Amino acid sequence: MEHFTYTAEFTHPLCPYCSSRVPCDQDDPTEPWIGTCKSGHTAVYELDGEDDNL
Ligand SMILES: [Zn+2]
User: Is-above-0.90 flag for pTM?
Assistant: First the structure.
């Protein structure tokens, strides 16, 4: 399974295959989580916490 990181700029990551939003219901998205977009692409997503602008 592919593993992608995304930045905190986006509340939800975008599917790298079809650019659909991938719903995230994780309490701690800095831990890798498995997400499936509306088109059915499944991948592991992980929030990249390096860019901390808050
Ligand atoms: Zn997709």
Answer: no
